[in-house]
Design goal:
Length: about 350
């Protein structure tokens, strides 16, 4: 008999096309009426358009969201929010902007409506990663969970081909790790399989036709499912490695996930056979690792950490950092095995070599 614990995250999801038009009613539904819109400098146009659409409900726009949520930026945003008397935030953007909304919420207690425009999945997690003096700290607190998520397929049409591919593979990584999670349960495994299937279908179509709305909708749906997996069960070696690599070498977030994922899948394969079967089935291939590599190659995504700018001299340090703390992984990893795996990902080597190692 299977025993499990499943905890749902509270939150309301509005999904569709043109749903940006519903932000105002969703804000009012929360009893709010003084919105501070959050965005990155690159998405100010979308943020200003939203402010205009919100009319009297909006009190301002803060357009300085940054990757990795530096606490200094959050302090500025909190000051602006309090100065304007905002009673909620609406973050429009990817994981970086949503991270800022969470960080503001943690300090100022403002409820959040979020409008995700990438596939990162942060919108449905109670997790916030913030950078203090160059060190990224992760906080898990139900207080940072957005109240309402508005998925608008139309807003993802402007995602570049490269961010579409890497952000999709980043989301797929949440689903893959959910399948071998220590606290995996039948519900998240269902969500994970569906998420992988959605991206395996949508990403190749988007690589040829970025404005294919049906494929965009499929990918955004996959992002929600994968984000829900990330929110619900514990992640393992893959997320640990990407966190270490991103933090230590300032590597781009979603590209790092895209490079590392097949290596971790190959490493974990001997210890997680049913997860491998589920991944392969969702990808429509006979083998999880080669299926992921084929997909990545079809999408034209970089295949090595070297291409992302990681110095070869950093491999040993990354292996040290990745094995300093103990954490659960279906296949325990030694420092030497971590070094071998990171060296393989650095060089973009075929990952089949890890299966013969004993740990
Ligand atoms: P991002 O938010 O940094 O976005 C990358 C760039 O793309 C930004 O300049 C952004 O403005 C732009 N962009 C986003 N959507 C766009 C669109 N539709 N059209 C045009 N440009 C667009 O990237 P990301 O990968 O979404 O997020 C990465 C960050 O999110 C990392 O800091 C990561 O740690 C965090 N994250 C957190 C969680 C969590 O649960 N806490 C989950 C996933 C990611």
């Amino acid at each position: 008999m299977r025993e499990f614990v499943y905890e749902t995250m509270p939150g309301r999801v509005v999904f569709g096309s043109g749903t940006i038009g519903r932000v105002g009613e969703e804000v009012e539904r929360l009893g709010c009426g003084r919105v501070l819109v959050l965005a990155t400098p690159g998405q100010m146009e979308q943020a200003e358009a939203l402010r205009e659409r919100l009319g009297w409900l909006a009190v301002g726009v803060f357009g300085e969201a940054r990757m990795h949520t530096p606490v200094e930026t959050t302090a500025q945003a909190v000051e602006v929010a309090l100065g304007l008397g905002a009673d909620c935030t609406v973050a429009i953007g990817g994981g970086s902007t949503i991270g800022l909304g969470k960080a503001v919420s943690l300090r100022a207690g403002l409820p959040q409506v979020v409008v995700p425009t990438t596939y990162a999945g942060s919108e449905v997690t109670p997790v916030l990663g913030e950078t203090h003096n160059g060190r990224k700290i992760t906080v898990r607190d139900p207080a940072v969970l957005p109240r309402t998520v508005i998925y608008d397929v139309d807003l993802t049409l402007t995602l570049s081909a490269s961010l579409t591919a890497t952000s999709g593979l980043n989301a797929m990584a949440h689903a893959v790790e959910a399948l071998w999670a220590k606290d995996a349960n039948p519900i998240t495994s269902l969500l994970a399989g569906q998420a992988i299937r959605a991206f395996a279908t949508a990403l190749p179509r988007l690589a040829c036709a970025p404005d294919d709305r049906d494929a965009r909708a499929e990918a955004l749906y996959g992002a929600w499912l994968a984000g829900t997996c990330l929110a619900t069960v514990g992640m393992a070696l893959h997320h640990k490695l990407c966190h270490v690599l991103g933090g230590a070498f300032d590597l781009p977030h979603s590209e790092t996930h895209a490079v590392v994922l097949p290596h971790v899948v190959a490493f974990n394969a001997p210890a997680a056979p049913s997860a491998m079967d589920a991944i392969a089935a969702a990808l429509g291939t006979s083998d999880a690792t080669t299926g992921l590599i084929d997909l990545r190659q079809r999408l034209g995504v970089p295949g090595s950490l070297c291409e992302l700018g990681m110095p070869e001299s950093g491999i040993e340090r990354a292996a040290d950092l990745a094995t300093t703390d103990t954490y659960w992984n279906p296949r325990p990893i030694t420092r030497d095995a971590a070094q071998e795996l990171i060296a393989g990902a650095w060089a973009g080597a075929p990952p089949d070599q890890y299966s013969s190692r004993t740990s």
